[in-house]
Write a structure and sequence with these properties.
flat, mainly alpha, 4% strand, 5 helices, 114 residues
Length: 114
């Protein structure tokens, strides 16, 4: 048990090779929060989340066979950060537009339209 704890900590520094997805997810959560704070109206919030969904749909297609769980974790943290920071717009509309944007981005890149 002690050896396992030491595997994550090397010289007092967090081992990035083992926990890269979690560290990146926390960073992305902060970025999602800041992006949502930047949007000062509901329309801008909806447009930003739709475009974020389209971009993440392309990333979802690119990670079709590798690192899919880590990518989903990062997307969930981005969405949580965005929802926490969005004071304008309803949460269910944000979720629907993000999922719709992901689907649009996935289909457009899968068919090589974009």
């Amino acid at each position: 048990m002690i050896k396992q704890k030491k595997a994550y900590w090397i010289g007092g520094v967090f081992n990035l090779q083992e926990r890269w997805a979690e560290i990146l997810a926390i960073f992305i959560l902060v970025i999602g929060f800041l992006v949502a704070l930047w949007a000062r109206s509901a329309v801008v919030t909806y447009m930003v989340i739709l475009l974020s969904g389209i971009i993440s749909g392309r990333g979802f297609l690119a990670r079709k066979y590798t690192h899919r769980i880590a990518y989903i974790l990062i997307l969930i943290f981005y969405l949580i950060g965005f929802l926490l920071g969005s004071f304008y717009g309803k949460s269910k509309y944000i979720l629907v537009l993000f999922i719709l944007g992901m689907w649009i981005g996935y289909v457009l890149h899968e068919r090589e339209i974009i």
